[in-house]
């Protein structure tokens, strides 16, 4: 195939840009509930639940200074992570295609796509810890299936790693010198097991629209860029 190298480079650039746009969309859709999550994780005694925390923040701090506090660094972080993640994902897919003698991305098995996603997450972790990104056979999915896969993957991811995220938030907010294990034991002993899942509800609620938007914006940005550059691409129906 002619100009295979430049074609692969163009694919990586398109994946990078589409991932950046998807990461930006994810932040603006999900930031208010992410703020609620962090507040409930770090000061669980102050709030009577997700709605109470949301309303208190809105009433006392407003939309921009309250619910959207920290948006700019969040955008920078998500753009960095998702652009690298999706660019790496495309490169990893092509590498696996060569190793398995598969001609089209759509013909990759679920295991091959999952392997590409795992490798891409490894590379993106050099920028940031991977977020809720489970991407299996994304190119072959229609918008609803793409959004559903992103939402389910994100919810499962957060449910598994949430205790670690609670500890991370407390370390960042309280500036404690305690070790990860030490803080885990302290929370478990003094506040109970469920304190490690304080703030999970707004996180799961946020994950559904935010992660769905991430994948949808990524797919359609990628399709638009391929169309703009006159490069054939499997359409998203």
TrEMBL record:
GO terms of molecular function: L-ornithine transmembrane transporter activity
InterPro entries assigned to the protein according to its UniProt record, in alphabetical order: MCP_dom_sf (IPR023395), MCP_transmembrane (IPR018108), Mitochondrial_Carrier (IPR050567)
A single GO BP: mitochondrial L-ornithine transmembrane transport
PROSITE patterns: SOLCAR
Organism domain of life: Eukaryota
Alphabetically ordered keywords of this record: Membrane, Mitochondrion, Repeat, Transmembrane, Transmembrane helix, Transport
Protein family according to the UniProt entry: Belongs to the mitochondrial carrier (TC 2.A.29) family.
Protein name, as recorded: Mitochondrial ornithine transporter 1
